[in-house]
Design goal:
mainly beta; RmlC_Cupin_sf; iron; disordered N terminus
Length: about 325
């Protein structure tokens, strides 16, 4: 649907003249903390490993939440609201159907993404496809805060298909990067996927390979390991990051250096996420994200009263939500 903010192009996802991106010599970022994302129940029968939005890492601006989810057939996330944030869903295996009250609907498959700007209000459902072999649907969902001046923008929805995502490789061929958003090895992503500038790189490193990339100056960043472990180096220090762990990086420094020993028996895979910090308060109550407590009370009242962005929620039910197995 057309957006009331259609003239707002957002800040560039690759900042021009950024001192870290243009530096001739770079200093690797140091590690602030490392912790495991613990498996837990979420939604209706889903399992998630949450690594942003927990006591270990809360309100890491502009990031609100990161879930590594597993949705078995018969489980899912039936009709629910959002306001004040954007969600980025990246499917790793299987397929997920989505539908919202603005009339957007469709299915993303392994390697695809969906970008949803909740803005002033959206109600949607996310339900797993029934895979022929009965396997679970696995992916990542990242919640990104919206700049305060865009909290009340019209909701919007976009897909990004796997075949639209450029792939970058290191010179020795031991590193492969899906450049979903941002830059790696001189390869740039599609622009303006979200209002808040965010880098999202899906990185695979073969044994004996080293991933090295600059990151925008002072952006907050972290790495989440999907399979096997990696060694993160910062100058003279090196630390092993095991599978399903989040490594939070310091703002100081220009680059990331991650390697896999030549003696490893298989490749390692991780996602690198970085975003422009927003200088604003974060007040969150479930799916509502505002900059004040008053904003949260208003969001709850608007949702319950079908007002100020939630008018279309009245009497709306998604078709895919009705498929829940009870």
């Amino acid at each position: 649907m057309p957006s009331a903010q259609s003239t707002f192009k957002g800040l560039p996802v690759i900042p021009p003249n950024d001192p870290s991106l243009t530096a001739t010599t770079t200093t690797p970022r140091k590690i602030r903390k490392v912790f495991e994302a613990i498996d837990q129940a979420e939604g209706a029968g889903a399992r998630v490993r949450r690594s942003v939005g927990t006591r270990e890492l809360k309100n890491f601006t502009p990031f609100l939440m990161l879930d590594h989810f597993t949705i078995a057939p018969g489980a899912g996330f039936p009709d629910h609201p959002h306001r004040g944030q954007e969600t980025i869903t990246y499917l790793l295996s299987g397929a997920v159907d989505h539908e919202d009250f603005a009339g957007n609907k469709g299915t993303i498959h392994a390697g695809d993404l969906q970008f949803m700007t909740a803005g002033r209000g959206i109600v949607h459902a996310e339900m797993p496809a029934q895979n022929p072999d009965g396997s679970a649907n696995i992916g990542m969902q990242l919640w990104v805060d919206l700049p305060e001046q865009l909290k009340d923008c019209e909701p919007r929805y976009r897909d990004l298909r796997s075949n639209e995502i450029p792939v970058a490789k290191s010179e020795d061929g031991k590193v492969e990067v899906k450049v979903i958003s941002g830059r790696a090895y001189g390869v740039d992503s599609l622009q303006e996927l979200a209002y808040t500038p965010v880098w999202l790189l899906d990185v695979r490193v073969q044994p004996g390979g080293t991933f090295n990339t600059p990151l925008p100056h002072k952006w907050n960043a972290f790495i989440y390991t999907l399979s096997s472990s990696i060694n993160l180096s910062s100058g003279t220090d090196s630390r092993t990051i095991p599978q399903y762990h989040n490594a939070v990086l310091e703002q100081e420094g220009d680059s990331i250096v991650a390697s896999v020993p030549a003696t490893a028996d298989k490749e390692s895979r991780f996602i690198l996420v970085a975003g422009l910090p927003l200088k604003q308060a974060i007040v969150q109550y479930g799916p509502f994200v505002q900059t004040s407590t008053e904003g949260i009370y208003k969001a709850m009242a608007d949702y319950q009263g079908y007002a100020n962005g939630f008018e279309r929620a009245e009497n709306w039910e998604s078709e895919i939500g009705k498929s829940m197995v009870h």
